[in-house]
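Students often ask why inverse folding is considered easier than folding. One informal answer: many sequences map to the same fold, so there is more than one right answer. In these notes we will look at a single instance of the problem. The structure comes first.
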């Protein structure tokens, strides 16, 4: 654990290979995609564990409704609280861990050019401690072409400086605006969608990976990260969840004590 803490402090992330039982991860993937069959998201007759895109048309209202139900599933909550995750955080923080209620689960369709832009998580979590971690968990194998999470190498130190600058600029704003990602002084969450240019500006590179079901990456709220679009030639959808843990004793951002919704502006 002390080596992991050192690695985390140095890199801003940890890749915990195979920390979760692969079978349970794949069972959850199958359950997720089978629920979306009625919205015509997955290919008819296909095994839901494969997550093969139907090609559309998807009933997007129904798909959104189902997604918001999934966020409330006891099964999803149990997945996010799997014992290896809780044990890891208990040891890592050296104290009782707390899982934020706002938990995000995302699927991406092959060929959809939209993807998460470059950002660091503290921008959305300024109302509590910065001693918190994000767990990004692939729910299924996510090879590079399926568009997994990518990290901007060495970016945490730079983001800390940026955050300090924002804090200076925001200090005179009322509290709710001061902690908002979308206040008058800020750029609305994402630093850039142009990932190569950002890496060039900072003279660094993006770290990419082939993730497997059972892996979990843990990252600091300061490391800059993004995701890429899904170009899987086998038409598989990318499924992942991103959830946040901290010590229960530290200050908790109350805005994260509600279930995720698509318009919560966090
Ligand atoms: O999965 C994604 O597209 C983005 C995830 C993310 O931003 C995070 O894990 O903090």
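Output (designed amino acids):
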């Amino acid at each position: 654990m002390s080596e992991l803490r050192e690695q985390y402090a140095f890199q801003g992330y940890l890749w915990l290979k195979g920390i979760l039982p692969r079978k349970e991860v794949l069972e959850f993937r199958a359950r997720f995609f089978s629920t979306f069959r009625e919205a015509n998201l997955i290919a008819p007759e296909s095994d839901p564990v494969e997550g093969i895109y139907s090609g559309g048309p998807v009933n997007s209202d129904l798909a959104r409704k189902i997604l918001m139900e999934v966020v409330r599933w006891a099964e999803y909550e149990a997945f996010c609280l799997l014992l290896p995750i809780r044990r890891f955080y208990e040891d890592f923080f050296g104290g009782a861990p707390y899982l934020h209620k706002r938990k995000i689960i995302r699927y991406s369709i092959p060929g959809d050019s939209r993807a998460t832009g470059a950002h660091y998580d503290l921008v959305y979590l300024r109302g509590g401690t910065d001693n918190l971690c994000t767990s990004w968990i692939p729910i299924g194998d996510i090879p590079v072409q399926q568009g997994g999470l990518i990290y901007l190498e060495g970016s945490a130190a730079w983001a800390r400086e940026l955050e300090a600058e924002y804090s200076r600029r925001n200090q005179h704003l009322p509290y709710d605006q001061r902690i908002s990602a979308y206040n008058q002084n800020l750029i609305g969450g994402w630093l850039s969608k142009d990932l190569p240019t950002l890496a060039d500006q900072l003279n660094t590179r993006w770290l990419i990976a082939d993730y497997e079901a059972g892996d979990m990456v843990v990252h600091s709220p300061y490391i800059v990260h993004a995701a890429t679009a899904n170009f899987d030639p086998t038409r598989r959808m990318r499924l992942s969840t991103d959830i946040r843990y901290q010590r229960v004793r530290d200050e908790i951002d109350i805005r994260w004590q509600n279930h995720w919704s698509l318009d919560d502006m966090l």
